[in-house]
Amino acid sequence: MLGITVLAATAIVACASSCGDPTFPPNVATRVVGGEDAIPHSWPWQISLQYLRDDTWRHTCGGTLITNSHVLTAAHCINKTLTYRVALGKSNLTVENEEGSVYSGVDTIYVHEKWNPLFVWNDIAIIKLAEPVELSDTIKVGCIPEEGALLPQDYPCYVTGWGRLWTGGPIADVLQQGLQPIVSHATCSRLDWWFIKVRKTMQCAGGDGVISACNGDSGGPLNCQAEDGSWQVHGIVSFGSPKGCNTLKKPVVFTRVSAYNDWINEKIQL
Question: Quick check: is 208 catalytic?
């Protein structure tokens, strides 16, 4: 994950040692059923992707700030007919001028060339911001894991987003977080789990029937803490079960970020 221009490259190098290091640490001591309100700005790389309709900006997906100019999100979040903006440094979406938050226009959107909406393959996109954003206590970049990195079964990770609080329920006002332990490919590809629907370029997490990502969380990060204490983004929320958000043995399926390092590097250098 190296920069796109001299300016961006400098920013990446400068932030390489401090990515995934929130000024306000998240509360990971509790495991609340169904998720919980996140401590404000404890996931400062989380963004809200918003589209304009009837003169109102509306949340549609999450995403992760990975450089001061680039956001990582899901390909299925992108509709070329819509006008987007990116909200950064947000906790409460109902507070337009929230302290520490900024809004950015979009310069370019790169959707993976082999994105397949039928089979949900290569569900990854990068948004280049109209202008580089100034990093702060409330706006930071998330770490990208090393190429090919895999986490073991039951490794504790957290999904974050403003998605629906339950199946068919309302979008959350305040950023939510939920514990989503890693599910190995061997488990997730079992006949009574996701079977052949899940590929090795995907990462499953959760599946306990209690805590789950839901509609509106799409594109957002699966945050996993490394041994050095930094938070790495191992997944991009991709899809779940049509039976509902919290379905037993149907964990949320994420695009596995470590399967796309080369593609990410290529796009942020354009």
Answer: no
